[in-house]
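Shift notes (night). Ran Dual OB-containing domain-containing protein while the centrifuge was going.
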Amino acid sequence: MREVIITDLTRFSTNENVCTAAIDVNTGECLRPMPYLKSAKCEELGIHPGAILRGDLNFHTSPSSPHVEDATYTSLTFHGACSGAQFKQVLENSLTNSVSDGFGIDFDAGQKHIPHDQIVNCSIITVKILPNELSIHEDQFKPGKIKATFTDGSGHRYSYLSITDRGFHDYAKSHQNDGRLHEVTDLISRQEEVYLRIGLSRVFQAPDGRYGYWLQVNGIYTFPDFHDEIRTYDQ
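Came back to this:
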């Protein structure tokens, strides 16, 4: 039986399924419950970032790299929300200095994916960035799509990454629809600390032939403040 805190609740193109990731409060291990949870099940269990769950979660015996966090699960139950301080500590304990350090890959300028034949030992990391180093904006090539651009602690800039953080995406999208997307970045810039959960997609081939695992922003967490409708933890 494990006790975990949900750190990632990511979206797909449809709302039927969601991908979740959690960190074991005792071991610090990151686990991704598989198969994917249904959106209805998440609502039933009260699953949002910061939710405390208990259940039997076990890593797959033969995980497929880089998604070594994949885990089976049974008997998941909701046990309330963690505090903002506890959630922040979970993120701190999982920190890596940069995206390159976290995945063990030296990214070229503009590179957004890891080739499928490159060995990677994980698919989810946490980085901490300066609030003014993150911007949320419309995709210049796909109007209507919201993307994130940030610079990590090593000074490397990652541009126009997909935002798969479901709660944050919906929040930003509502502001975009109202013509107020700049308010999202303004809110972030006023915060003291920003943590990003950076994940790798399942293997995917782009129209130009690039084949591999694509960087995406699984979670955006700011302290001390954030919009209270999309987070469970009490700031």
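The chain has a mean pLDDT of 89. The longest strand covers residues 211-223.
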